[in-house]
Write a structure and sequence with these properties.
Blueprint (H helix, E strand, L loop, with lengths): L1 H31 L6 H28 L7 H6 L1 H29 L4 H22 L2 H6 L2
Length: 145
């Protein structure tokens, strides 16, 4: 089961990052130009939000469901930078990014016009995507691990 979750947690970001970029560009155009904030765009935003939550949930299941022994020696975990990245920095940053993306989606729903619906998506999803890019293990991501 762990291997399946690991593969899903590795391959899902390829789709997710592409979708996030598309969502950000389309919302930016709806915010800054005369493009409409359509139901299709709202659906794409929702799918990006769902994929964010799915990715974080899979990661947390892998972290707490299969690696609880890593937390028995928290002092030694924090001294090793690779282990600290894998078990503390990466998960915590991804949770924060998911919260920010969720906030952006909620604020977008309260908008009254197209620009006020698209602006929170661009800002909050953008910050969330920046945090994700900051703490994504790029060497493992690009090598297919």
């Amino acid at each position: 089961m762990y291997t399946g979750l690991l593969h899903l947690h590795h391959w899902l970001p390829f789709v997710y990052l592409l979708l996030m970029l598309v969502v950000l560009v389309q919302n930016f155009l709806a915010w800054k130009s005369d493009n409409a904030f359509t139901d299709k765009l709202a659906r794409q935003n929702r799918i990006a939000l769902i994929l964010t939550h799915l990715q974080v949930t899979i990661g947390l299941i892998m972290l707490f469901g299969f690696n609880m022994d890593m937390f028995s020696e928290m002092g030694s975990l924090m001294k090793d930078s690779a282990m600290r990245f894998k078990y503390v920095e990466h998960p915590l940053t991804m949770i924060i990014a998911a919260v920010l993306i969720t906030v952006g989606n909620a604020k977008s729903k309260r908008g009254t016009d197209d620009a006020s619906k698209a602006k929170p998506i661009v800002i909050w999803f953008g910050i969330g995507l920046f945090l994700i890019a900051l703490r994504l293990p790029w060497e493992a991501f690009l090598q297919g691990a």
